[in-house]
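Exercise 7. Given the encoded structure of a 228-residue chain, write a plausible sequence.
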């Protein structure tokens, strides 16, 4: 299958790998139609000057020796921040939010702890069932989808969604009184549930918060575009 730019191909220009001409500039590896969306959203939110290297998870470009030197796991996303090579989407976002004073890092140590809590929680409680719903409702080719697995994912999301709804009912945000990395990290993972048409009607605070988060200009700019 030929991949267009919206799906991502490794640029032929191997200067990107060698860093020539772009020394020191933040590099973000990974196509938007992947967990790299989370990091692209963050760098847009912070207004950073960065170079996007559209390594794809499905065409072998994440398994080249050059990319494995950035992320030995052979997965996306990853960043290279002036020599600091970092992987794991949540860790990358927490690092970038803390490093750059873009208002996304919580202002107190207690709120900082909440941001860590919600980020770990989203990865452990939400990501797997949300991915099952996404894969089996829209991402996989139709003949490979199993509706039972999608429904099971939606079912497993009910309890974490209830917890999230109760938390959002208090202040509307997850760490402190404004939008932070905690909201971005959790909303970026829950974007899969929305794409998978998980019914959020029983969770009005989640529904409102998620809609507002995903409509932020930085989120829309990062969002995967459909191949034409
Ligand atoms: N926990 C990692 C997961 C990264 C991950 O699994 N990324 C997928 C794309 S969304 C990937 O690169 N898959 C390729 C593979 O597993 O070989 C993170 O959040 O960054």
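Solution.
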């Amino acid at each position: 299958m030929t991949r267009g730019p919206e799906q991502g191909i490794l640029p032929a220009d191997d200067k990107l790998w060698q860093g020539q001409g772009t020394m020191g500039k933040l590099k973000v590896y990974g196509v938007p139609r992947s967990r790299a969306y989370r990091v692209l959203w963050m760098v847009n939110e912070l207004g950073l000057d960065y170079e996007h290297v559209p390594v794809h998870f499905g065409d072998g470009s994440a398994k080249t020796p050059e990319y494995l030197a950035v992320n030995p796991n052979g997965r996306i996303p990853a960043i290279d921040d002036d020599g600091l090579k970092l992987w794991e989407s949540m860790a990358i976002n927490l690092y970038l939010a803390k490093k750059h004073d873009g208002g996304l890092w919580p202002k107190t140590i207690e709120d900082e702890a909440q941001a860590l809590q919600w980020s770990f929680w989203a990865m452990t409680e939400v990501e797997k069932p949300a991915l099952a719903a996404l894969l089996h409702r829209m991402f996989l080719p139709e003949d490979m989808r199993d509706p039972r697995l999608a429904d099971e994912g939606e079912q497993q999301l009910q309890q974490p969604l209830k917890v999230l709804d109760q938390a959002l009912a208090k202040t509307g945000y997850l760490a402190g009184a404004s939008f932070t990395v905690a909201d971005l990290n959790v909303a970026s993972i829950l974007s899969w549930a929305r794409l998978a048409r998980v019914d959020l009607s029983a969770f009005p605070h989640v529904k409102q918060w998620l809609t507002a988060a995903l409509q932020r200009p930085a989120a829309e700019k990062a969002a995967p575009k459909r191949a034409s």
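Remark. The beta strands are 26-29, 50-53, 78-81, 84-87. Students should compare their own answers with the one above.
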